[in-house]
């Protein structure tokens, strides 16, 4: 295991930021894939969908050991779903650079993500492990 992080997010906070800043906030923080998934949800559960992804980004920043510093930004981390529906993270930019620096030589990253929400809270946990290719 290379890193672990968790985060609890208040969905009401995300609702307030969405109401105040709208698309500017969503486009700054969330990837196009994340926004498309959230926008398919009904308006009542859309903030929870965003809040879970916010929590996953926060948890990932903790697992990377940097928080949002050293070139790691929210937009560098995107929750994507594997074909079976399981969430994982796609990292770019500074988050990817940091991930690569954490990995021992000859290994590849494996990111495990779990997310849940129960109004008014959303929770996510991220585990980053280094795997030796077979």
List keywords for this structure.
Ribosomal Protein L22, Chain A, magnesium, two-stranded antiparallel ribbon, about 30% strand, alpha+beta, single chain, 4-PPantetheinyl_Trfase_dom, about 130 residues, fatty acid metabolism, 4 helices
Helix/strand order: EHHHEEHEE
Which regions contain 5 or more consecutive residues with pLDDT less than 50? none
Strand content: 25-35%
Helix content: 40-55%
CATH superfamily: 4'-phosphopantetheinyl transferase domain
Report the mean per-residue pLDDT as an integer.
95
Tell the overall outline.
globular
Classify the secondary structure makeup into a structural class: alpha+beta
Q: At CATH's second level, what is the architecture?
A: Alpha-Beta Complex
Total individual domains: 1
Count every beta strand, where a strand is a DSSP E run of 2 or more residues: 5
Main sheet: strands, sense, barrel:
3 strands, antiparallel
Enumerate the strands of the largest sheet in spatial order, edge to edge or round the barrel. Answer: 1-5-4
Instruction: Assign the CATH topology.
Output: Ribosomal Protein L22, Chain A
Name of the top-level CATH class: Alpha Beta
Q: DSSP helix count?
A: 4
Keywords: Cytoplasm, Fatty acid biosynthesis, Fatty acid metabolism, Lipid biosynthesis, Lipid metabolism, Magnesium, Metal-binding, Transferase
GO molecular function: holo-[acyl-carrier-protein] synthase activity; magnesium ion binding
Cofactor: Mg(2+)
Organism: Lichenicoccus roseus
């Amino acid at each position: 295991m290379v890193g672990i992080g968790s985060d609890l997010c208040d969905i009401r906070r995300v609702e307030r930021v969405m109401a105040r800043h709208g698309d500017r906030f969503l486009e700054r923080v969330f990837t196009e894939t994340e926004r498309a998934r959230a926008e398919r949800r009904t308006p009542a559960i859309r903030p929870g969908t965003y809040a879970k992804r916010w929590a996953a980004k926060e948890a990932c920043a903790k697992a990377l050991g940097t928080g949002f510093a050293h070139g790691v930004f929210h937009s560098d981390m995107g929750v994507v779903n594997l074909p079976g529906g399981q969430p994982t993270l796609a990292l770019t930019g500074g988050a990817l650079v940091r991930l690569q620096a954490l990995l021992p030589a000859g290994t590849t990253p494996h990111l495990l993500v779990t997310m849940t929400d129960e109004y008014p809270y959303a929770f996510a946990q991220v585990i980053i492990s280094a795997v030796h290719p077979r």
